[in-house]
Amino acid sequence: MEQTKNKTYPEEIAENVEGRLQSNYFDVMMAKVEDNQFMQTWFMYRMWPWDILSFMLIGMAFFKLRIFHAEKSNKFYLLMMLVGYVVGLTVNYYETRMVVDSQFDAVTMAKANQTYDLGRLFTTLGHVGLIMLFVKSGILGFLQKSLAAVGKTTLSNYLLTAIGTSILFYGFGFGLYNQLERFELYYVVAGFWIFQLIASPIWLKYFKYGPFEWLWRSLTYQKWQDLKVKK
């Protein structure tokens, strides 16, 4: 513990990068064990339950009020989008400007994090309003069907993205960790999104569920579920 306290910030960064570029999966896992222990114990039980439950309750309320069913008026969704984005993006800009100007100082980042939930809540409301307006408009039907397919295979897309980015960035794969500029990371995000939008509707053309959704259903009902679409 004393040795850890005596490390300088650059040394910690170098050790962090080196640990993620190990050529063996289990070596990477061991290099991250301290972070994982913190995230899966102290942070998990003290922070995430309130975060997850609060947003789940908001989502349940929106579902019950049929906001997610695109049944409200265009005016309602437009107001939701405008208020959400004006408040959310303003807060996000404030946080980002503060962090960038401080050159990502740890204390400043902690300060900016105080308004993080406010910003993301209102930005999410803006997203909901925009998406519902898009759905009600009926335009770009092919994109709407692709987005719906991604939604139906959410668990599979989430896990496959996690596996894919691990292979892309860690040493047992392509080792791109700490190699890309921040703006280049958006190319990675776009690449995964394009893949999901293309692959998900094709998959659901032949199968009822995503692979992990199928496994989850089978475990839940303790019986192998039919996977293939009957023609």
The coarse silhouette is: globular
User: How many E strands?
Assistant: 0
* Gyration radius over CA: 21 Å
Determine the strand fraction and express it as a percent band.
under 5%
Report the biggest beta sheet as strand number plus sense, adding barrel if it closes.
Answer: none
Notable characteristics:
13 helices, 231 residues, 0% strand, mainly alpha
Q: What is this structure's SSE topology?
A:
Blueprint: H1 2-5, H2 9-20, H3 25-31, H4 33-40, H5 42-46, H6 48-64, H7 74-101, H8 106-112, H9 116-137, H10 141-152, H11 154-169, H12 182-206, H13 211-221
Describe this structure in words.
There is one protein chain. The protein has 231 residues and is an all-alpha fold. Helix content is 75%, strand content 0%. The protein contains 13 helices and no strands. It has helices at 2-5, 9-20, 25-31, 33-40, 42-46, 48-64, 74-101, 106-112, 116-137, 141-152, 154-169, 182-206, 211-221. The chain starts with a helix and ends in a 10-residue tail after the last helix. The mean pLDDT is 91.
